[in-house]
């Protein structure tokens, strides 16, 4: 008998689902998969519920409800000084996941090279490989997540179609600096290619400002910017994403969106439009609250002998397990952590190309987007098994 697609057949179930299932089976606190354990803003939930009773139940327009596209354009202006045409430069998608996939579909021809920065989010490589692209991975290295200029330069070639940049970055929490963005922009121009910018954590930064690559000179026509309502409004189940790009790119991205999802839930789109207009004070409150929880959790981990790496943005902090590993790698350590301590985390080696060089095996990622009570309970549980003297 003929067989289904071999590449997809061989793809393992995502580590986030695996660890969430393991956490459930063992009654563990789930600091693995990145989702908040509190509700999003009441005004958004109410707006979504009301829209369901208000005739918002048929297909939305292909590129998104006008009110959401207008809100995305306004937010681009307010937050970053970008002048965006809501009619031709915004596309609403079913989550950033779809936005990434359709943007890649729109850019890539088989054989094109794509520069990526490891550790990387787990949907990038499978989509690239399905499209026949050739990944060129560069690593930011622990403990400071430094971006090596020589390696980045060497990853670009005449065949490079795009660089995929995730800032703020999952899992490292790195927020790329203005100097790093300028370097990337200069390489994009030098090699006449594009930049696909996964900016889902744009509003979740702590003490540093997120700068979209699109705001750097020459990038307005070459960068595709992706946002996620799930992350910006703490409603990860909603799966509403938005793409901002120049019209020559959105024209092609819209074709990919047309054959993959066509449109996304209209009531949620209406609510997200309201959310984007909440503006700066809402996002400041959200990031201040997350920052306090990052500090609480990172300090607790340090006290237990798990040094943490710098994390200026996102839901995540990476910890070094070396002092407590006793010969175990990050995968074995995370499994034992669920079963023995009742806390779930994600092994960082899962964020590296399985076909690439050996990844680091001494790092694990914790999601701190949980209530203080839950984080404190997780630290208590860890404290019963680990002490700083160990190792
Ligand atoms: N990119 C990154 C870096 C992420 O962490 C996530 C998390 N879910 C996504 C994209 C996908 O976002 P969405 O849930 O909106 O599809
Ligand atoms: N982005 C989330 C994380 O990194 C997971 C999303 C998913 O489970 N697909 O934890």
What would a concise description of this structure say?
By secondary structure, this protein is of the alpha/beta class. It is built from 14 helices and 12 strands.
CATH architecture of the largest domain: 3-Layer(aba) Sandwich
CATH homolog superfamily of the largest domain: Type I PLP-dependent aspartate aminotransferase-like (Major domain)
Which ligands does the model contain, each kind named once? 4'-deoxy-4'-aminopyridoxal-5'-phosphate, glutamine
Strand order of the largest sheet: 2-8-7-6-5-3-4
The coarse overall form would be globular
End-to-end Cα distance: 54 Å
- Taking Cα atoms only, what radius of gyration do you get, to the nearest Å? 21 Å
Key features?
391 residues, alpha/beta, Aspartate Aminotransferase, domain 1, Aspartate Aminotransferase, domain 2, 7-stranded mixed β-sheet, 3-stranded antiparallel β-sheet, 14 helices, globular, binds 4'-deoxy-4'-aminopyridoxal-5'-phosphate, binds glutamine, Aminotransferase_I/II_large, Kynurenine-oxoglutarate_AT, transaminase activity
């Amino acid at each position: 008998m003929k067989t289904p697609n071999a590449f997809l057949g061989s793809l393992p179930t995502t580590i986030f689902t695996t660890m969430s299932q393991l956490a459930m089976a063992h009654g563990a606190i789930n600091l693995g998969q990145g989702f908040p354990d509190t509700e999003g803003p009441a005004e958004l939930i109410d707006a979504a519920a009301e829209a369901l009773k208000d005739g918002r139940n048929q297909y939305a327009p292909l590129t998104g409800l006008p009110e959401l596209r207008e809100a995305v354009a306004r937010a681009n202006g307010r937050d970053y000084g970008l002048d965006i045409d809501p009619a031709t430069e915004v596309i609403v998608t079913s989550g950033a996941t779809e936005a990434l996939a359709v943007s890649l579909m729109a850019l890539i021809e088989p054989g094109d090279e794509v520069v990526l920065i490891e550790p990387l989010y787990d949907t990038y490589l499978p989509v690239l490989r399905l499209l026949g692209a050739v990944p060129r991975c560069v690593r930011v290295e622990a403990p400071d997540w430094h971006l090596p200029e020589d390696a980045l330069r060497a990853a670009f070639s005449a065949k490079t179609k795009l660089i995929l940049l995730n800032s703020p970055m999952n899992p490292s929490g790195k927020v790329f600096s203005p100097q790093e963005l300028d370097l990337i922009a200069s390489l994009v121009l030098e090699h006449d290619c594009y930049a696909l910018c996964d900016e889902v954590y744009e509003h979740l930064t702590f003490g540093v400002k997120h700068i979209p690559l699109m705001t750097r000179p020459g990038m307005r026509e070459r960068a595709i910017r992706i946002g996620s309502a799930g992350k910006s409004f703490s409603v990860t189940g909603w799966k509403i994403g938005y793409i901002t790009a120049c019209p020559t790119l959105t024209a092609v991205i819209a074709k990919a969106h047309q054959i993959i999802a066509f449109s996304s839930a209209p009531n949620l789109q209406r609510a997200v439009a309201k959310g984007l207009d909440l503006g700066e004070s809402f996002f400041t409150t959200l990031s201040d609250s997350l920052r306090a929880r990052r500090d609480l959790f990172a300090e607790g981990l340090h006290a237990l002998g798990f040094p943490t790496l710098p994390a200026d943005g996102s839901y995540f902090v990476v910890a070094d397990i070396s002092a407590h590993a006793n010969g175990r790698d990050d995968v074995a350590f995370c499994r034992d952590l669920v079963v023995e301590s009742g806390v779930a985390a994600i092994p960082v080696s899962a964020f590296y190309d399985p076909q690439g060089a050996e990844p680091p095996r001494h790092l694990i990622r914790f999601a701190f987007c949980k209530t203080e009570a839950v984080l404190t309970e997780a630290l208590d549980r860890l404290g019963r098994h680990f002490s700083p003297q160990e190792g």
